[in-house]
Amino acid sequence: MQFTSFLQDGRLTVALTGEIDHHRAKSYIQAIAAKIEAYAPAVCVLDFQEVSFVDSSGIAVVINALRQMTRMGGKLLVTGLREQPMKVFRASGIEKIVDIKEAVR
């Protein structure tokens, strides 16, 4: 699992990489939760630009971050989705509860 993160003006951006499947999801969930807890941002952006694959575990990553941000009174954004992850997210209906932006390619 690799990712980078930075905080700027109350906005935490977490740039995820690679594939998010059941092998990696738990680590991502824990790492993102720790960042949100440490920085208490008003907005958390999950950047999926470098994510090539997600399965239903990728949805769990987003839902866990959404729950944590909602408890804190913050907002979650998901950006940079490529075609395959976007198909999975659309099929789940998650775009009804999370602001999602596709990658521009």
Question: What are the SSEs and their pairings?
Answer:
Layout (H helix, E strand, L loop, with lengths): L2 E6 L2 E10 L4 H15 L3 E12 L1 H16 L3 E7 L1 H10 L6 E4 L3
Parallel strand pairs: 2-3, 3-4, 4-5
Antiparallel strand pairs: 1-2
Give the key terms.
105 residues, alpha/beta, Transcription Regulator spoIIAA, 5-stranded mixed sheet, 3 helices, 39% helix, globular
Descriptive overview:
- By secondary structure, the protein is α/β, with parallel strands linked by helices.
- It has one domain (3-102): STAS domain (Transcription Regulator spoIIAA), CATH 3.30.750.
- It contains three helices and five strands.
- The protein has helices at residues 25-39, 56-71, 83-92, and strands at residues 3-8, 11-20, 43-54, 75-81, 99-102.
- It has a five-stranded mixed β-sheet with strand order 1-2-3-4-5, with helices on one face.
- Helix 1 runs parallel beside helix 2 (56-71).
- The radius of gyration is 12 Å and the shape is globular.
Question: What is the number of domains?
Answer: 1
Helix and strand string, N-terminal first? EEHEHEHE
**Cα Rg:** 12 Å
Q: Provide the residue-averaged pLDDT.
A: 94
Strand order of the largest sheet: 1-2-3-4-5
Strand content: 35-45%
**Tally of helical runs:** 3
Could you tell me how far the N terminus lies from the C terminus, measured between alpha carbons in angstroms?
24 Å
Choose one word for the global shape.
globular
Q: Output the CATH homologous superfamily.
A: STAS domain
The total strand number stands at 5
Helix content: 25-40%
CATH class: Alpha Beta
The CATH architecture can be named as 2-Layer Sandwich
Class from secondary-structure proportions: alpha/beta
List the uncertain runs.
none
Largest sheet: 5 strands, mixed
CATH fold-level name? Transcription Regulator spoIIAA
